Amino acid sequence: MAYAAWWAWWAAAGADGTGSVIAVAGGGRFEAVDGDRISAYAHPPANKLGVLVHLRGGDDELARNLAMHISWSDPRWVGRDNVPAEVVATERAIYLNSDEVQSKPVEAREKIVDGMLNKRFFGERGGVLADQPWIHDSSLTVGRVLADQGAAVTKVEQPGSGDTARGDGNNQPGGSGATGAAAGTSQTSIGANKTAF
Question: Rounded to an integer, what distance in angstroms lies between the CA atom of residue 179 and that of residue 55?
Fold first, then answer.
């Protein structure tokens, strides 16, 4: 029910915020049971960018703040375990063959590449949700905030993109931890031309 109420508001707000434009790009269903949270965030002033998040555990404020974070950070995966090995291998090869790394001693290169992957790939905007700096307190990662509150992301949707992301509510992102596809669901992407969440 929270999903239907939010979706109706999203459609009525329209692209210009006056209610004169109605554009429903799709539909879906979020169900909250026993301690789950469903929250939404539409970025003002035009409300063109929105996120719906389903969280297991935590509280309403965390769910809303997480939706806000996702709208800004545009993560492709919930946790590192969701990043396909071939994507990581490709990024590793790019960093390893860069002039920046090639100018370093051979014995230090792998460690340097690991650091670059952690900071520039996993933890950056568009990377792994759990590794991203929390926009509300950059000294924390999203994974740490979720773990501290005993919460896990189970599903994310960005209305208008037609894409849905799912996490496995049994796992809690944090450190190298991750969430993946919920049992019985397929992995799908969170944004256009993105890899599975």
Answer: 12
> Taking 90 as the threshold, does the pLDDT of residue 66 lie above it?
yes
Please report the pLDDT score of residue 197 as a whole number. 41
For the chain, the straight-line distance linking the first and the last C-alpha, in angstroms and rounded, comes to 24
Q: Rounded to an integer, what distance in angstroms lies between the CA atom of residue 13 and that of residue 82?
A: 34
Residue 194 to residue 175: CA distance in whole angstroms: 23
| pLDDT number for residue 136 | 94
Q: What CATH number is attached to the domain comprising 56? A: 3.30.479.20
In a domain, 119, yes or no: no
Give the number of domains in the chain. Answer: 1
- Please enumerate in sequence order all residues whose Cβ is within 8 A of that of 97, keeping only pairs 6 or more positions apart, or say none: none
Cβ atoms within 10 Å of 95's Cβ, excluding its own? 19
Residue 178 is predicted with a pLDDT of 29
- What pLDDT digit, counting tens, does each position of 98-131 carry? 999 999 999 999 999 999 999 999 998 989 999 9
Q: How far apart are CA 76 and CA 126, in angstroms?
A: 6
d(CA 180, CA 154): 9
Name the residue range of residue 70's domain: 2-13+23-83+128-166
Mean of pLDDT values over 16-44: 69
